[in-house]
Design goal:
The protein is of the alpha+beta class. The protein folds into two domains: about 15-250, 4-Layer Sandwich (Glutamine Phosphoribosylpyrophosphate, subunit 1, domain 1), CATH 3.60.20; about 270-445, 3-Layer(aba) Sandwich (Rossmann fold), CATH 3.40.50. Helix content is about 30%, strand content about 25%. It is built from 18 helices and 27 strands. Strand 11 and strand 12 (about 205-210) form a beta hairpin. Helix 9 packs across helix 10 and helix 9 (about 270-285) packs antiparallel against helix 16 (about 435-440).
Length: about 475
């Protein structure tokens, strides 16, 4: 069983991204090893399971297990993954439970009709499509919307893979960036809204697809461009072909800029580290305060803390040390260790904090479960005042497009006013960056983003209460129904 050190359960006070995907076509290269190192670079996007599928022109090979990249793969496992094409996946579950049958890539179909899929995102009409596919005789081995996508592609009319993928795209609703693999072809697919990022790179005599540009950097690939929303890219021995769809509403998740993507990744032509510094600068303009030291909560708000310090003229300090080796593990902590909570992740420095007025910059507050503990530890280390500054506007609505956030009843900003939140977390003052300030910091217009978690205005209609285990419930109902007919 995979446990989470210092949390006890998955109700963390951080947004959790769904997945990182990767794909490579590189003849005469060890594509499994290239994918392995790329998945290391994308580990932040998913820590529950990891997997690689390869193709050698005749068949698909897949190896996917629970755990971190370094825990999953051995030299022996990589040695069995031969071929010139590969896709890889790191998972954080937003649809379907955290079980090995849901690990990706997963292979669906047989022989010439087999396809491997790696998916980042969330399909909001997955239950409807699942029931239709079951009526057509398709069976499911997992409880993920990713397998729904793969079976929908297999069920699509036509014999050409691009036609089948486009047909499926026309029926899917929600967010998806995909890498797909047949026995001889790699496909990259980005949903029409462009909620989840996907980029294209070049490596020697081949091509690379990745959720973020940082994965390209780690394997020596050159960034070419982003995959466009509603685009299908086909890569095989004949080269690269692009099939563009329509130009509709764009809705990139704003949290890619705030938190999800690594600060050394580039999205929409902008390196994220200076974008996050700009958020901190905007915070300082909107919520100034007299203080002695600015601390960015590591690592996600480090850049924003630097920006706040630069704009305010208050020195930046390193008052919290993050234990970078705290993450997911196969060893469950006992209750005493679990109760230590935030101390496992952050260690305050009393010599820096003692008798100081602090500005503490963080990326977001979701449920409000962790922030009070952080503030309590800072005060215990001697902080005289703690002024919280948050890069994200108040999160009042849940996400249905691939972020494991919370239900609306669990979101603290949906239940309390800002002064009430300030009192609840134990801060002296609390300031959130405005939506206007956030958009100025990222330097892109509002119509390029999904801001639904702040505004409640979703880019497509959604069911306001969705269950991530809904497909498992449907499967159980089917089993019970069949048993009752026997």
């Amino acid at each position: 069983m995979v446990g989470s050190i210092g949390t006890g359960d998955k109700k963390l006070d951080k947004l959790q991204e769904s997945c990182g995907v990767f794909g490579v076509y590189a003849p005469n290269e060890d594509v499994a090893r290239l994918t392995y190192f790329a998945l290391f670079a994308l580990q932040h996007r998913g820590q529950e399971s990891s997997g690689i599928a390869t193709a050698d022109g005749k068949k698909l090979n897949v190896y996917a297990r629970m755990g971190l990249v370094a825990q999953v793969f051995t030299e022996e496992a990589l040695g069995h993954l031969s071929g010139s094409l590969a896709i890889g996946h790191n998972r954080y579950s937003t649809r379907g439970s955290n079980r090995e049958c849901n690990a990706q890539p997963m292979v669906v179909g047989k022989g010439n009709h087999a396809i491997a899929i790696a998916h980042n995102g969330n399909i909001v009409n997955a239950e409807f499509l699942y029931e239709q596919l079951c009526e057509q005789g398709y069976t499911f081995q997992s409880s993920t919307d990713s397998e729904v996508i793969a079976n929908l592609i297999l069920a699509a009319p036509g014999i050409d893979w691009v036609e089948k993928i486009r047909y499926a795209m026309n029926r899917l609703q929600g967010a998806y960036s995909l890498t797909l693999l047949t026995k001889d072809t790699l496909f990259a697919v980005r949903g029409p809204l462009g909620v989840r990022p996907l980029c294209l790179g070049k490596i020697d005599n081949g091509w690379v697809i990745a959720s973020e540009t940082c994965a390209l950097d780690h394997i020596g690939a050159n960034f070419i461009r982003e995959i466009e929303p509603d685009e299908i890219v086909k890569i095989d021995a004949n080269g690269l072909e692009s099939y563009l769809g329509g130009k509709g509403r764009r809705a990139l998740c704003i949290f890619e800029y705030i938190y999800f993507a690594r600060p050394d990744s580039v999205i929409n032509g902008r390196l994220l580290s200076p974008a996050r510094q700009a958020m901190g600068m905007r915070l300082a303009m909107e919520h100034p305060v007299d203080a002695d030291v600015v601390i960015g909560v590591p690592d996600s708000a480090t850049s924003a803390g630097i920006g706040y310090a630069h704009q305010s003229g208050i020195p930046v300090g390193e008052g919290l040390i993050r234990n970078r080796y705290v993450g997911r593990t196969f060893i469950e902590p006992d209750q005493r260790i679990r109760d230590l909570g935030v101390k496992l992740k952050f260690n305050p420095l009393p010599r820096v904090l003692n008798n100081k007025r602090l500005v503490v910059v963080d990326d977001s507050i979701v449920r409000g479960t962790t922030t009070p503990s952080v503030i309590k530890e800072l005060r215990r280390a001697g902080a005289k005042e703690v002024h919280m500054r948050i890069c994200a506007p108040p999160i009042r609505y849940p996400c249905f497009f691939g972020v494991d956030m919370a239900t609306r009843s669990e979101l603290i900003a949906a239940q309390k006013s800002i002064p009430q939140i300030c009192q609840f977390i134990g801060a002296d003052t609390l300031g959130y960056l405005s939506i206007e300030g956030l958009l100025k910091a990222v330097a892109l217009p509002e119509d390029q983003f999904c801001l639904a978690c702040f505004t409640g205005e979703y880019p497509i209609p959604v069911q306001l209460e969705m269950d991530k285990l809904a497909l498992e419930t449907l499967q159980l109902q089917q089993v019970l129904s069949q048993a009752g007919r026997r």
